[in-house]
Each structure stands twice: as structure tokens, then as C-alpha cells.
Amino acid sequence: MNVIAQAREWLLNDPHEETQHELRILLERAGQMDPLAVAELHDCFRASLQFGTAGLRGKLGPGPNRMNLVVVARAAAGLAHYLNDKGTGGSVVIGYDARHNSELFAKVSAQILSGAGITPLLFPHTVPTPVLAYAILHLKADAGVMVTASHNPPQDNGYKVYLGSGAQIIPPADLEIADYIQRVTQTGSVRNLPHGDTWTTLDRSTERAYLNHTAELVSREISGNTDLKTVYTAMHGVGGKTFMELVHKAGFPIPIKVEKQFEPDPTFPTVVFPNPEEPGAIDLSIESAICHSADLVIANDPDADRCAVAIPTTDDKSTWRMLHGDEVGALLGSWIAQQSATKTGVMAQSIVSSTMLKAIAEQSGFEYQQTLTGFKWIGPIPGLVFGYEEALGYCVDPEAVKDKDGLSAALKVMELAAHLKSHNKTLQSELDRIAMQVGVYATDQVSVRVSDLAVIPEIMQRLRSNPPTEIAGAPVTEFIDLAVATKLLPPTDGVLFNLGGGGRVIVRPSGTEPKVKVYLQSVVGVQDTHLANARAQAAANLAAMAEAAGTWLS
To answer: What's the distance, CA 13 to chain centroid?
Structure first.
């Protein structure tokens, strides 16, 4: 079927006037041979968004390759069939962020689930993703749906699915749900799907339970006796109000808000890309921190499941830097280890994160575990006490939230910063102490974007068939093809090179973008050298490793 016929059939089946209107304009422009409209039309219908371990995520618009009411309704129906066939279709809690059409997608999901005999538990307003993840366990729901595209661009939206364990879906559940969605798609128009009109609209008690529980994660002796000055940005997302309430309940001084970024806004007007990791994203926060001579900057991404931290680099607090995700992971891991009375349980991280956590865990008496990239692998680990991934995701309360939680993580960072300030110390001095204890673990990431996706498997095959024996002067002591499953890790497309001295290089295709990512780590001991010298050596090692990686990817 040609694309014009596909588009016309879509018009007949799409009940949403907004995408109908958009598609009619595209068809009109394509009929006038507008090349941009023709290309857009082909992209809308060339494929279908694939449901996987991250659920669905993509650009808003008409057609099967976009996020829209039809695609969401099919996903909800597929999930309903999966739950009913598994005998676990009792209730599903549904949350949504402030992006375009998020509320619509949440309510359509409630209608479809209700029509399938499942009880939807719908939040009455926007909530952060961690609140939805908490609600699944708190309400003993059989699954959860969060309508969010996290830190993606403004034109995107997404559909994240959790099961009753409170963790994101992993294989084989993702493949099974995808199969049910495909069956729904083949049955025809979503207009014919059973739609119910009964669901439970949640009151504030679930959010209050999250706030009360999470506030208890920190010591009132610390939070109630500090003059810690924190600047906070919600990055135009839905975390701001919840975070302010949480800080108040925990007893900390109220942070200074970045007003221009505090209220939810789906257009994200002050940032090019609403991700705290992106250059310029926290510039307004730094400006405010300098103006107020603050001690700390906390930034959440738009759905508040990630947490970024920035600190001053000079005594007069006139210059600042954002901490790397691995640095925050080390600070939180070490702090949780210090606070633990039993020293039992597991500390875990994604395989591409710094192995400094391994050294911290082992020195503190905790078990340690690595997982594949993504919190869907970290959250379900039995006995987990702390987990993180370098992309600003931290789980400090795994019994209650089996996912990354940028709100509770921010609270624990504030607790640590306040504790250190009371002893005339800083987060930087704590990083120095940890480095003196376990060594300098420096990390960096380089990537190459490709225009032809066929290049990516060629690069990966080249590294597998002819792996380097040394990288930047360091011998490769172990080559691991991550596509081969082990007892600890399921297979994934990637290769790992362990280097003499503790260095490491991991190469893997991006799961969301047309690029190859290279994760670098250099480890330098500080027993026989000054800390500054060790850091300089580690930085030089990373630069040489990045240069070597560039030759593989060219």
C-alpha cells in the first residue's frame, strides 16, 4: 500500500482531531509535491514504533511511527490482554507528565484498560515518574503506566510500563506485550476497542505517602540544623512542587528556585534540550548560585527521575562545575555505606558506570553487582541498598521505589552536603577523601553519530573480529564480547576491553540515537603520588584513550 493510501486509511481510524488535522495538511502539501511534506509523510508511515524495555518513545504526530492516540490505545489494549492472560489484570496505576498530550494519553489508557475489565487508578494531575513508581508498590497495583518522554526534546512523548514488582519491564515481558500489541493492531480500528468509563481517580493520599516516606530517608538532626543554601531547577518539568514539599517535610532550608524553569512547560523555552547533562541546560541555575553565594545546585530532568548536581570550584563561589554522574554515584554510595548499621545488601551499577562503586562496596562490606545499561536491570536486584547509572540515575530507596528517583537522590545529596558543611567540608573535599581511599577513577564518554545505520554493525564487527591488543599504551588484559551471555549478564550489543592498571573501554551502539558510544575509565592509585598528580595522569590517560577510540570509529 502506498503512503497516500496508508495515510487516508489512518484518517478513517484516528479519533483524534488534532492528528487528523495535521495529517490532512501533510496530504495536501504532499499532493502539491512539497518535498518536506512527502519526506515527513513517508517517515510517519515507514515503520511502527517498537514497544521494548523502555516502552514506547517517539515524536508526536500521525501514523504508526509517531506517538499518538491510536498508538497509545493499541499499547494499552496490548498491556490489558497481557495482564488478563497472565491472570494479573486487577489494577493499573497511571501517571503522566506535562508534555503535549500526556493527559490525553493517560485518560485513553484508562478507558481502554477499563473496557478490558481492569481497574485503572489514575492520578488527577501531573506527577513525577518516581511518584508513579512508588504508587505501584504502595497501592499493590498489578502494573503501572507513566506517560512521559523524560528528557527528550519537546516534540516527543513516551509510554513507560512497569509490572507489579514496581520495576520497569524486562525480557521476556516486553516481547510478550509487544506481541499482544501487534495482535491488537491487526484487528483493525481502535474505534472498535472496548472503552470503559469507570476508573478510580486517586486523591492526594498516595502523593502524601510518598512525601512522608521519602522525607524520613534523611536525618532530622542534620536537616534541621543546617544553613545549607541550595539552588534548584525543575527544568520546566513536573518535579518542582513535589521537591519543594519534600524538602520542607525533611526539615531543610527551602531551596532558591530558578523561577524561569520552575513551572511545567511542554515547550521547554529556556533550554535547547531539557536534559541537565546538555551544555547550557543549567546555566540559569549557575547564575543564580553565583548571585546567592549558594553551596549547591540541584537539577531534576522534566519527569524528575534523574538528578544533576553542581558545586563551586573556588572559595568565593564565583565558578562552578557540574559533577559527573559517576561522581554523584560515588558520593551517594559512600554516604549510604557510612550510614548503614548492618553493612549488608547489594550495591549495583550499570556496566558502563565507573567501577569506583565496586571498591567502595567491597571496602565497606557490601556485595557488588553489575548490570546492563538501564534501571530496568538495577531495580529488581534482591537485597539492593543502592544502585546507580552514570546518566544521572540513582536509586537510594529500593524498597519503596525500584527505579531511579531524582527527588530522593537530591534529598540524600543535600543531607550529605549539610553534614559536610557542619564539619567545614564540601562535596569536593569528600570526593578527595574517597579518591585517597580507593584511588582516582576518572571517566569520560565519546561518541560518533552516523548518517547510515549500516555503519554501526560494521564498526562492532570490526572490533569483534580484530580487537586491539593495547589501547593508549595500556595492554588489553581481557576482551569480552557482551553479545555472549554470562551467568551475571544477559547478551547485549557491545564489547568491553579491560586494561592493565584498572582502565577499561566499553563500546556499544546507542539504544536511542544513531550513534556509537565509547565509555572510558582510567584508574590511578594515589598511595605514591599526590592526588592532583594522580588526577592529571588519569585525565591524560582518558585523552589518549579517546584519541585511540576515534581511530576505531572513523
So the answer is: 33
> pLDDT tens for residues 247-301?
999 999 999 999 999 999 999 999 988 999 998 999 999 999 999 999 999 999 9
- Residues 215, 324, single domain; the answer is yes
- Whether 123 and 132 have beta carbons less than 8 Å apart is answered as yes
If asked whether residues 193 and 151 sit together in one domain, one would say: yes
Residue tagged active-site, from 102, 109, 150, 288: 150
554 is catalytic: no
Q: Is residue 41 part of a domain?
A: yes
Please choose, from the candidates 445, 461, 452, the residue with its C-alpha nearest in 3D space to the C-alpha of residue 520.
445
Domain that holds residue 26: 1-46
Whether 92 contacts 81, CB under 8 Å: no
Q: In what order do the strands lie in the sheet with 296-300?
A: 256-257, 230-233, 296-300, 307-312, 320-322
Whether 59 is in a domain gets the answer no
Three cell numbers, residue 361:
562496596
What pairing do the DSSP bridges indicate for beta strands 346-350 and 367-371? parallel
* pTM tops 0.90, yes or no: yes
For residue 423, the Cα-to-chain-centroid distance in whole angstroms is: 33
From residue 407, alpha-carbon distances to 75, 211, 308 in Å are 29, 10, 11
Count how many domains the chain has.
4
CA distance 386 to 396: 5
Helix count (H) and strand count (E) of the chain? 18, 21
> Dihedral through CA 278, CA 280, CA 284, CA 288, nearest 10?
90
User: Do residues 292 and 304 both lie within one domain?
Assistant: yes
Which H helix or E strand runs over 438? helix 427-438
Strand 504-509 and strand 515-524: the pairing is antiparallel
Residue 511 pLDDT more than 80?
no
Q: What ranges make up the beta strands (E) of 271-350?
A: 296-300, 307-312, 320-322, 346-350
Q: Which CATH number covers residue 377?
A: 3.40.120.10
The answer to whether the beta carbons of residues 127 and 251 sit under 8 Å apart is no
Rounded to 5°, angle at Cα 294 from 404 and 222: 65
